[in-house]
């Protein structure tokens, strides 16, 4: 632990662990307020892509989260010879991966899934307006605060896709988790922020299928092949009762043609989202644990 970090924060118990480091609870010495500290061991970074992601994470996270009610907030950054420490909002309840697993293969009711997709689209629309792509949207990185408000977390793979003049600066590199990456990423082409929309489409499919991803292989290579084919199907045994509007939105998000794929803003205007995931015969049955109220003010990754 860095001297500056331990001067400002009391470090507590571990609450998460990833490939490159660990997340712990921490408490501000000055105020007593609780946070989480994500500590990345720079000695474990495998290549230049990983090193670049860690080097820019604090700045990109701060840009993406500023005035973004649906993003986990960052409160400080510390670095020494071997570690990078990011102090972030404490969100230690069940993440979306846990919520999917807890249902034991039972799909989410459409209103509950719509609430999550809407909040994720709000989070990403704000990021994209600031020129930031998350690049690793998945259930493990969809967290909730104590009031049930959704917070998009872990900007370790995020990158700016606009340059200093506001011009489009395409991204490259195989970044993300196999089930959730977009076809253009797998193909090795330049890509933009709509890779995040593809990932939200995968998350939506998993919520409505009871946890099954739309594109799957027994190995990462087979999964990438399935993603590249982008053969989207809705097996009747799983999706028999799913509304046409929900399927339509997923087709528009999981669209191989990037030009035709929805933007995050377009998700928010789709009838399935506008109606709260309810068909004309359904009543308002949204899960109260997934709040769509905007919070006032205001970690590490079958999910991974």
Automatic annotation (TrEMBL):
UniProt-annotated binding residues for ATP: 38
PROSITE patterns: PROTEIN_KINASE_ATP, PROTEIN_KINASE_DOM, PROTEIN_KINASE_ST
Pfam families: Pkinase
Residue ranges annotated for the Protein kinase domain, each copy included: 9-273
Keywords annotated in UniProt: ATP-binding, Kinase, Nucleotide-binding, Repeat, Serine/threonine-protein kinase, Transferase
Alphabetical list of InterPro entries matching this protein: CDPK_Ser/Thr_kinases (IPR050205), Kinase-like_dom_sf (IPR011009), Prot_kinase_dom (IPR000719), Protein_kinase_ATP_BS (IPR017441), Ser/Thr_kinase_AS (IPR008271)
GO molecular function, one term: protein serine/threonine kinase activity
Role: CIPK serine-threonine protein kinases interact with CBL proteins. Binding of a CBL protein to the regulatory NAF domain of CIPK protein lead to the activation of the kinase in a calcium-dependent manner.
Family stated for the protein in its record: Belongs to the protein kinase superfamily. CAMK Ser/Thr protein kinase family. SNF1 subfamily.
Protein name as catalogued: Protein kinase domain-containing protein
Organism whose genome encodes this protein: Ensete ventricosum
Classification lineage: Eukaryota, Viridiplantae, Streptophyta, Embryophyta, Tracheophyta
